Amino acid sequence: MKVKVISRSADEFTRERSQDLQRVYHNYDPNLRPQEKAVEYVRALNAAKLEKIFARPFIGAMDGHIDAVSCMAKNPNYLKGLFSGSMDGDIRLWDIASRRTVCQYPGHQGAVRGLTVSTDGQVLVSCGVDSTVRLWNVPVATLTNSDDLSDNSVEPLATYVWKSAFWAVDHQWDGDLFATAGGQVDIWNPNRSQPVNSFQWGTDTVISVKFNPGEPNVLATSASDRSIVLYDLRMSSPARKVIMRTRTNAISWNPMEPMNFTAANEDCNCYSYDARKLEVAKCVHMGHESAVMDIDYSPTGREFVTGSYDRTIRIFQYNGGRSREIYHTKRMQRVFCVKFTCDASYVISGSDDTNLRLWKAKASEQLGVLHPRERRKHDYHEAVKNRYKHLPEIKRIVRHRHLPRPIYKAAALRRTMIDAEKRKAERRKAHSAPGSIVTVPVRKRRIIKEVE
Amino acid sequence: MGAKEDDGIHENILPPIEQEISDELNAKAKKYLRGEGADLKALQDKKLKGQLAVREEIYGKSAKAAAKIEKWLLPSEGGYLEAEGIEKTWRIRQESIAREVDILSSRNQYDIVVPELGPYTLDFTLSGRFMAAAGRKGHLAVVDMKNMNLVKEIQVRETVRDVVFLHNEHFFATAQKKYPYIYNREGTELHCLKEHGAVLRLQFLRNHFLLASINKFGQLHYQDVTMGEMVGNFRTGFGRTDVMQVNPYNGVVALGHSGGTVTMWKPTTSAPLVKMLCHPGPVSALAFHPNGHLMATSGKEKKIKIWDLRKFEVLQSIPGNAKCLDFSQKGLLAVGNGSFVQILGDLSGSENYSRYMGHPMAKGYQIGKVQFRPYEDVLGIGHSTGWSSILIPGSGEPNFDSWVANPFETTKQRREKEVRSLLDKLPPETIMLNPSKIGSVRPARKKEKPTKQEREADMEAAIEDVKGIAMKKKTKGRNKSSKLTKKKQERVAKTKRPFLEQQLKEDQAAGKKRQKLNEQVELPSSLQRFARKKTTT
């Protein structure tokens, strides 16, 4: 007879000294965990509810400007620094961590329309409606910590006067040229008082300009004649152009997929394009109830933030048709500029009410240093939520956002109008000769033509 | 080319030992895959297909990792009992086992004799660390089984019919003469659950924190022990019974009745989910396999039946009486009858139960309850003169999971687990026959009404079918061509009739609707705006 029975001595399975860690044993046998799927579902439900409870995205407002904030610029070399320009010609450097002004750059007459920082983070370029481009020295990071704020106002390094009012400026990602938009597109060398190159295609004002993050010589502009134009500095003439039904207010390139850019349009939508294939948009991002004023990609390239005239900020996935998040406060007026911070965890908005506002990019994220156990718990919650996201209860909780009444009503109205249009189109198609009416997909509907 | 082929063959061939190991791992991984993967080929959506493919790969990897852990990393091995020569395992007595095993295990063989408080019933906590014993005459005891300490014993001076632990060893519920009560470990009475009435049998659903009871009048009650809310209260309508068991796999409560039926209940419906006639006579005992697919029932007609709950079919019918039944974690079945305990085992692995061990107790002991101690090779027996414990090698799961049930739990861990299990408390709606349905998508419903064209097409097809059938050659005089044509026409008419009748019915219904509308609107459309909205009374 051979016999063995389970025999566990307490010494083997418990700790020896009180300072030791408790021993933990695992057995992953599914029979030991009955109804594990139901338990997982309940956890997902609880995680969805907790996410809603902890969703407090607003961190604080940065007060100081005395007119609407018109433009912002990130300092690529210093995480905490942010520049903002306002409609009264004031430029400020903010310390985001303490939410205070570090220094001011007085000089512009009239509104500041564009701000950008050079690649090395040492020169700030600003332009405005007074037809001047001004170059400023950016204080060193250690200096910005000093407490004597707002006194250390500085003189511009250079001031260049040009023909027409400027609307936007952007610096090359790699290189020392910068481009301004206004009556035409001008390419400037910071050491010369006149542009080194000028482009014009069409007669209307160019309102935004953005350099490509991957290819330093390529830039995209949008103009008030509803066109988006791509330029290559190595060629003497513009490269390509697409004309849409409404004006594009801002453009942002995806930093991780530099052939793609997203255009913020007047018709409440954003359009993601592949720069090599402009006849059809890659994705249409819907959700805003009024013109989209500004757009900025997260450094991860997976999502972008938009600010709109409807007084809300939305965060979209780079390939998502609907917004992931919508931020609003009672006091925030029309949003003119938005920026993702360089660590992809905060969003900053500048609006008509003279304030800059700081938001979390993930509304329910826990700030501060996380214990590894806490991080694992957050990851687990995220995973179960993702696994059961299609179930009605969880979907309802995760999708729900409280909206201010005017926006809610505007959305309902818009939805009714769109539905009616769709219904009408369907009926018209059903009652026409087969093939005589072709349904144009949404991704093509707002594009008039592509010009080469 | 030849070299390439050679390479391909070499990749597949492993040395025989490794091959064996990989086969074993694959067999083990199957358990952790929890069913078939998604059928990717049937999918149209490319994006979804890609996402699911990634997911399936992760599942496969994690199942393999779990199988490897099971093979190499688990600290203990299961018990076993093997006969040598002409020995038979069922002839081996407890005394001979006691001689072979270590001292620690041999302490698990004992008899507690309390003849004047008897018959005893008992219950173990999920980890098998604590036991509650209840004597019919009102004796309640909580015992720490690790060091055989009596934690607390009280005398309630009332008939006690059943005892059951709640979520941990700190609380237990007893079915007493008139009502069930909840006590804490110190013996303080916390609650008297008057709504349940005179309860015969109690069960606790751990994941749902529900206390289920069946009372003298055949009423089934479910009470949430966290908030105290009465979740369900059903009259079974099958009379008095004291055969009740929870299926641990899905939380469904099964009742065995005197008519020979077994009914299965959930707290959200007043009718039983399943009603199966298991025995011609009264059902005397009931037990569920921990994997939820097997049920054992015993009838007063001297039959023990093993049922497959996926098909609701008898797998095996074993002759024998049973007063009480219990499945162990590894699937051994204990049968208690009179003063003899028999252990049946699925020794061949083909769901065919045969005798494995037996244990005769002292003459005159009437066994009332058998229960395997979780995570140990021990069977607890409650009988008329006290309680006993015997060794059954190979009955318990050798490896415990600290986060599921820990026999060496500290106070801190117990508190932590209490909070966690409360956070994961399942709502009563999650009790269903197939719990893997939770989180899955219901397939698209069939179209209710076929369209007119479809119906016509169906009719055409049916007519074509009928026309295609060759006529039988009949005897002389009945095979005339005119008769054949007539018959053919009859056939076609016969197939057409149901379709036409259906059509007629629908047309009539539509006509009625139209008529109704017309009745409502008598005025011409241009004058309708002047019509009175409400008729004045």
UniProtKB/TrEMBL annotation, chain A:
Biological process annotations from GO = maturation of SSU-rRNA from tricistronic rRNA transcript (SSU-rRNA, 5.8S rRNA, LSU-rRNA)
User: Do you know which CDD domains this protein is assigned to?
Assistant: WD40 (cd00200)
GO cellular component annotations, sorted alphabetically? Answer: small-subunit processome
**What does the UniProt keyword field contain?**
Nucleus, Repeat, Ribonucleoprotein, WD repeat
Q: Where in the cell is it found?
A: Nucleus, Nucleolus
For this chain, the family text in UniProt reads:
Belongs to the WD repeat DCAF13/WDSOF1 family.
- Can you name this protein? DDB1- and CUL4-associated factor 13
Origin species: Dipteronia sinensis
Q: What is the lineage of its organism?
A: Eukaryota, Viridiplantae, Streptophyta, Embryophyta, Tracheophyta
From TrEMBL, chain B:
The residue intervals holding the WD repeats read: 276-317
Q: For this UniProt entry, what is the primary localization, expressed as one broad class?
A: nucleus
Q: Which GO terms describe its biological process?
A: maturation of SSU-rRNA from tricistronic rRNA transcript (SSU-rRNA, 5.8S rRNA, LSU-rRNA)
Instruction: Return the annotated region ranges for Disordered.
Output: 434-459, 471-537
In terms of SMART domains, this protein maps to: BING4CT (SM01033), WD40 (SM00320)
Species of the source: Dipteronia sinensis
Per UniProt, the ranges with Basic residues bias are: 471-497
Q: Which UniProt keywords apply?
A: Nucleus, Repeat, WD repeat
| The keyword Repeat belongs to this UniProt entry's keyword annotation | yes
| InterPro entries xrefs | BING4_C_dom, WD40/YVTN_repeat-like_dom_sf, WD40_repeat_dom_sf, WD40_rpt, WDR46/Utp7
Q: Which domain of life is it from?
A: Eukaryota
Entry-linked PANTHER family? WD REPEAT-CONTAINING PROTEIN 46, WD-REPEAT PROTEIN BING4
Protein name from the UniProt record: BING4 C-terminal domain-containing protein
BING4 C-terminal domain: residues covered: 355-435
Q: Where in the cell is it found?
A: Nucleus, Nucleolus
Instruction: Give the CC-aspect GO terms.
Output: 90S preribosome; small-subunit processome
